[in-house]
What we know:
With 189 residues, the chain is mainly α.
Amino acid sequence: MAGQDEHPRADALRNRAALLDAAADVLAASPEASLTEVANRAGLARATLYRHFENRDALLGAIQTEALERAAAALDGAGLPDCDTREGLRRAAAALVPLGMRFRILLTEGSDTDPGFLAARTRTLAPLVALLERGQKAGEISPAASTPWLGLALAGLLMTTVRAAAMGLVDADDAGELVATTFLDGFGT
């Protein structure tokens, strides 16, 4: 927050949450939307938005943080350590694609250069990396490709799936199977 309190009031927390929800909705539909439009959607004054986020970059940073927190929780709840590679990919995609739809503004305006964001993203995606490593050890994924490269390829496939779902080309409910099949049939042994 611009004038961040150590212990914000309940209404300030509600306002911040409303602004983040509104920003995710408004910016997903119209990436060039103004902060005034975000404040209006949240039912709050523009001044309230600026008390929480000093500018568009600060708002996008907060959206990134929320997206990573939700992705971490979704992956933790997907039970990836308890399944084989194909099922793990299905579960991960089923958990992440709806979040990608919600936070798709980050596909065009997210920062892949901020060291703090990169570290948080690495921590968030650690369960997926572990799944890929297990898949390689089990012979379900070719060992010819490095795990970091496979991770980038999977991230690209997930982002493409989000974009395709946003355009109505695929059903987001089918994302799990689509991602697992595409990934493993392309990289499987």
